[in-house]
Design goal:
By secondary structure, this protein is an alpha+beta fold. The chain is built from three helices and six strands.
Length: 146
């Protein structure tokens, strides 16, 4: 599934958002979700700068990749900005909202993109806190909750 829409207000005519995902009915989750923000500095010419967030699920690993791709007269190239892989094998499918079909289908505006990106941040933050707490020695974990 691929959706495409223009940016709002000052972004109109210069920014295009693309949402793409592959859904697996067997696990009732997307195995890949991509959000692209494509900036065309001189519309309608083919030069652009794309920022891409890609969330993939492969077995028990969920990876979040952020990259920038440049296609311009000054040259082309791609830069990886960040890559984080999390072991989500302990989680139930409903506990992974980033790849939930209902959440991905709701992305139709720039504000929806912002909310999804905030959900990515929340998920990584909550996951990190959960795993850190699991690794804490018992006596320290008890002190943290009192």
């Amino acid at each position: 599934m691929v959706k495409r829409f223009e940016g709002e207000e000052v972004e109109q005519g210069k920014i295009v958002y693309e949402i793409e995902y592959n859904f697996d009915e067997g696990i009732n989750l997307a195995t890949r979700a991509v959000i692209r923000r494509i900036w065309y500095p001189i519309w309608p010419y083919g030069n652009y700068v794309m920022h891409k967030l890609e969330v993939t699920l492969d077995g028990g690993d969920m990876c979040i990749n952020v990259s920038r791709i440049r296609m311009s007269w000054n040259g082309t190239g791609a830069d990886r900005i960040a890559k984080v892989c999390l072991d989500v094998s302990e989680f139930e499918h409903y506990e992974i909202p980033l790849l939930n079909l209902n959440e991905l289908d709701k992305i139709n505006t720039v504000n929806d993109v912002k909310e999804y990106l905030n959900e990515v941040l929340r998920f990584v933050k909550d996951y990190t806190a959960y795993m850190t707490e699991k690794l804490m020695p018992e006596d320290i974990a008890v002190q943290m909750h009192t």
